[in-house]
Amino acid sequence: MNNIFPLIALLIFPGGLFLMASGLVYEWVDRKLIARYQNRVGPRWFQPLADVVKLLAKEEIIPTGVSRGLFVALPVIGMAGALTAALYVPIAGFAPSFSFAGDLVVTLYLLSMMTLCLGLAGANTTDRFSLIGATRTLTQLFSYEAPFLLALLGPAIVAGTWNIAEINNFAGQNIWLVVTQLMGFLVALVGLLGKLEMPPFDAPEAETEIVSGALTEYSGRGLALFRLGKDVELVVGLTLVASFYLGGIANPLEFLLKTLGLLIVMAGMQSLFARLRIDQTVGLWWRIGALLALVQLLVLIVVRVLR
């Protein structure tokens, strides 16, 4: 009987089904906001769910010339990585399901698993659009993972710990770190957009150029799992940035207000800028984003030593 409640927490709330449902809701909010910014109506509230249900009901076609086991396993692994990362994050303002020293590093690696799976999914096929998308995905991975990691290390250095729950508690007891670490906050937001391949950093899946990029050959449940995994990553990423830079997350209301506030800003950024070429996406941000994050880290380390 004592094992029932942990299972409910993992499978239903605040993990599992709740996390996937939240991802679909946040996807709808993002699409709706962008539509309104562009003077369009946008999708109805159930559209993301309808898309996933439709994909799950469709036949999954496995193209010739691919590794069948890899083709089927990659969406599952990517989805599992995103859901596992949520175990160490204060989803909905609740304490993380699991917590240990250094879980920040593990969480960031788990969040990278989806991008790696996307790259492998494109490289596993013989389709030229998929291969180009895979190349762009993996190239962009190296350009955005490092700045995003460095941006989240700033609050960790100030808090003196690599534990997400302790950093969240520290942020809730002090002035919002976005005030003292504005550069890191901006780098984290832009890095999250790049990690999720959202506009203007959506060159890896540019539908007007390479159909759907690395996922061109995917259909049915494989495509649905990749979409769900990205939605879960969006929620986890927003939660990390809010808990580190916006005074921590202590309850569901704070979670809702702060993550949706960040999503409004991100939707505005997606609407303001046109899609960047892959060379602009990679070269420009690698130099500027990494440099800004490193400068901030250097300042924080110097201030901490002088104290």
UniProtKB/TrEMBL annotation:
Record field: transmembrane: 7-26, 70-89, 101-121, 141-162, 174-194, 234-253, 284-306
Source organism superkingdom: Bacteria
The entry's keywords: Membrane, Transmembrane, Transmembrane helix
Pfam families: NADHdh
Lipid bilayer topology: Multi-pass membrane protein
Coiled-coil spans in chain: none
Subcellular location: Membrane
InterPro entries hit by this protein: ComplexI_Subunit1 (IPR052561), NADH_UbQ_OxRdtase_su1/FPO (IPR001694)
Gene Ontology cellular-component annotations: plasma membrane
Name of the protein in its database record: NADH dehydrogenase
Species name: Levilinea saccharolytica
